[in-house]
Amino acid sequence: MTNMSGKFSRALLYSILIVFAVYYMLPLYVMVVNSVKELDEIRQGAMLSLPQKFTIEPWLSAWSTAQIGVDPTGLKPYFINSILMVVPAVFLSTMLGAVNGYVLTKWQFPGHRIVFGLLLLSCFIPFQIVLIPMARILGTLGIAGTTSGLVFVHMIYGIGFTTLFFRNYYDAFPTELVRAATIDGAGFFRIFYRILLPSSGPIIVVTVIWQFTNVWNDFLFGASFADADSQPVTVALNNLVSSSTGVKEYNVHFAGAILAALPTLVVYIVSGRYFVRGLMAGAVKG
Amino acid sequence: MPYRAKLQDWLPRLVLSPSVALIAIFVYGFILYTSYLSFSDSRMLPSYGLVGFANYERLFGLRHWETALTNLAIFGILYIVICTVIGLTLAILLDRKIRGEGILRPIYLYPMALSFIVTGTAWKWFLDPGIGLENVVQTWGWTDFSFRWIKDRDMAIYTVVIAAVWQSSGFVMAMFLAGLRGIDGEIMRAAQIDGASNFNLYRRIIIPMLRPAFLSAFVVLAHLAIKSYDLVIALTNGGPGRATELPATFMYSYTFSRNQMGVGASSAIIMLIMIASIIVPYLYSELKEKKA
Fold first, then answer.
1. Nearest CB to A20: which of B108, B119, B283?
2. If you ran DSSP here, which 8-state letter would residue B237 be given?
């Protein structure tokens, strides 16, 4: 009897888990199958069916010929913009975070706790609060509407999180090692390069993934500070999907959405473990 | 070499100073600047004539702002509650020695890697009555089936909840799962030996022990809810009409398209106050605990 009910509750448990898996997969499934269908098929209410006639056309269109803004360029140039923005922004904010974390744990000075608190708090501000002055400053600096401007913005607002990650990681690193090296005459940078950095692999991966995902997926800064020719792919995708002129090419929209999501999805699939660790470190602070 | 020693002494602070300066200017300086603008007569461009609380008075007299706040309340509460319920349920179920956990967990979590613009696009067309769910169910034979929340002024805000919960609930699951895995197995075994039923075990022992996870989940979700912008833009663009306006979309349109920068700045300040009242006490207690 208990065995029976045990089996039943196991079955129930698995069914619930599978139902949720279907729920989470559904939008991705919808995007994928409809991105290789012809438009007529989608209009006939076959959104959940597999394509009757497979076509790669929507993907080609989303990538290189779809109308975005005024030009029929596809997402390609914007995808490149995103790459040009992400790489330096991630590199710079990660570097700053690493040295900040090092100073805040191994070279503590009076008031280091307050400095950390203020850096940390900066992670959570609603960015609406900086939009107006930032637009002006970027203009003054001559980088308004450029990719460099976006790199600058993302670097600044990444510092809080990257510092948090490295600080927590270095906090657990034995301070005796640093002290011993100081006694041996090693200086500030030497200790960092020779002792801390070589063992920072995991936290660098976590930080890079976190920053990459955030910067790639950003929309607000891209929409506020980019010109037509420096827009990141998220902004271009939104323009593609919400443009009110012409026929709505759902299949192209879906292909475009997958293209825009692909880099972060690939990172997630390849290194999900580190991705989750970053999420948790961002959530459970201190 | 006293000179070298002195440099070594200052080097750490010197290295930290660019970051501190950037944050001081671009975060705290900008907050001050925006608060100043919220008391100014700025319209299309910043202007520095002070007008007292006039912008705030206007703001709270605006129907749009009232809609944005009401929507935030509906959206925020449902988003937090549903994410927590789904996240906790999935975590508890997954923690019961499930075969295939390694496959299920990443499936629950991957939406977190996507941009809200992608999520918005997918749900926008999936919920679209013309080609999405309604149409599909009708072609299955239920010709009366109707599901047009996304086009309905009274229901559209709930579609934002649906999409946002889809994106974040897996993350909440991961937070609770980490909490559950941190609980000592001995406690569970002792309670089971005492004859506690599974339900009571969770209700009386395990869920109370997850308090820190509940708190973190609440703080993260609440601050995401207040900041929500991209998802609404991609899913409904604030519509139909202004039915899914949130404070973040309100701030953007008043500042940049309606040339009422003073009002826009004051709405940004209100958003900051909302977030700060959640985040500051949380960070304060977290950092203090660490010290003790």
1. B108
2. T
* Distance from C-alpha of A165 to C-alpha of A159, rounded to nearest angstrom: 10
pLDDT in tens, A87-116: 999 999 999 999 999 999 988 888 888 999
- C-alpha–C-alpha distance, residues A211 and A234, integer Å: 16
**Other CB atoms closer than 10 Å to residue B58's CB: what's the count?**
16
Residue B191's SS3 state is helix
Model pTM greater than 0.95? Answer: no
CA distance A131 to chain B (A): 9
Kindly give the residue spans of alpha helices, DSSP state H, lying in A107-185.
112-121, 128-141, 147-171, 175-183
Average pLDDT, chain A: 88
What tokens appear for A12 in the block?
């129930």
pLDDT at B147 over 60: yes
Cβ distance A156 to B135 less than 8 Å, yes or no, reads no
- How would you label A115-147 residue by residue, b for 16+ Cβ within 10 Å and e otherwise? bbeebbbbbbbbbbbbbbbbbebbeeeebbbbb
Domains of chain B: 58-291 (1.10.3720.10)
The answer to whether the Cβ–Cβ distance between B34 and A46 falls below 8 Å is: no
Question: What is the tens place of the pLDDT at every residue in A56-75?
Answer: 888 988 898 888 877 888 89
For chain A, give the number of residues.
286
* Residues near B3 by beta carbon (within 8 Å), at least 6 away in sequence: none
Residues B20, A115 contacting (CB under 8 angstroms): yes
* A68 three-class SS: strand
- Distance in angstroms (rounded) separating the CA atoms of residues A77 and A241: 17
d(CA B156, CA B153): 6
Residues A212-260 have pLDDT tens digits of: 999 999 999 999 999 888 999 999 999 988 876 777 888 899 999 999 9
Q: According to DSSP H, which parts of chain B are helical?
A: 2-23, 30-38, 54-61, 63-94, 101-109, 116-126, 133-139, 156-181, 185-193, 198-200, 207-209, 211-227, 230-235, 247-252, 261-291
- Return the bridge partners of A145, or none: A226
Find the residue in B nearest to A272 (Cα). Answer: B106
Compute the Cα dihedral for B34, B35, B36, B42 and give only its sign.
Answer: positive
